[in-house]
Amino acid sequence: MSIIVLQLFIAGRTPRTEHAIATLRQLIELRLTGYPCELVIVDVLTDPQQAEERHILATPTLIKVAPLPQRRIIGDLADADGLLAALSLPSLPLA
Q1: 43: CB partners within 8 A, 6+ apart
Q2: CA angle 9, 17, 11 (to 5 degrees)
Q3: What burial class does residue 89 get, using C-beta atoms within 10 Å of its C-beta: 0-12 exposed, 13-18 middle, 19+ buried?
Q4: Is 90 left (phi over 0), alpha (psi -120 to 50) or beta?
Q5: What pLDDT, on the 0 to 100 scale, is given for residue 64?
Q6: CA–CA separation, 95 vs 91, rounded Å?
Q7: DSSP H or E run through 4
Q8: How far apart are CA 36 and CA 70, in angstroms?
Q9: What is the full per-residue pLDDT of the chain (95 aa) written as tens digits?
Q10: What are the structural domain ranges in the chain?
Q11: Which of the 8 DSSP states describes residue 60?
Q12: Phi, psi (deg, nearest 5) at residue 69
């Protein structure tokens, strides 16, 4: 499989955004082990140009950039299984 590239768009450092970041990092560490994965975090407050280019209307928004097809998830990222399925990503089962 090619590299998995995820972009997470957040609006500042709030408990909600910290939770989204932690959830994604844990998902990558535990469920995508063995797959090359890059997580890019974009704060729309400090980089509004990227938000505009990607048509970000709400945060947190997660975009699977690669592999194609691109997918978007807006809002709560707490359900790891649902998130992996929605992004069409492979997963290792939890031990």
Answers
A1: 10, 11, 12, 13
A2: 50
A3: buried
A4: beta
A5: 92
A6: 12
A7: strand 4-10
A8: 17
A9: 588 899 999 999 998 889 889 989 988 888 888 889 999 999 999 999 999 999 999 999 999 999 888 999 988 788 878 888 888 877 655 54
A10: 30-88
A11: S
A12: -80, 150
Which residue type does 82 have? G
The residue whose two tokens read 């609006």 is 11
Tokens of 50: 């990227």
Question: How many residues belong to the chain?
Answer: 95
- The pTM of the full predicted model, rounded to 2 decimals, is 0.85
Listed residue (4, 84, 76, 83) closest to 39, CA to CA: 4
- Sequence-ordered alpha helix ranges (H) in the chain: 15-31, 48-53, 80-86
Instruction: Specify the pLDDT at position 93.
Output: 54
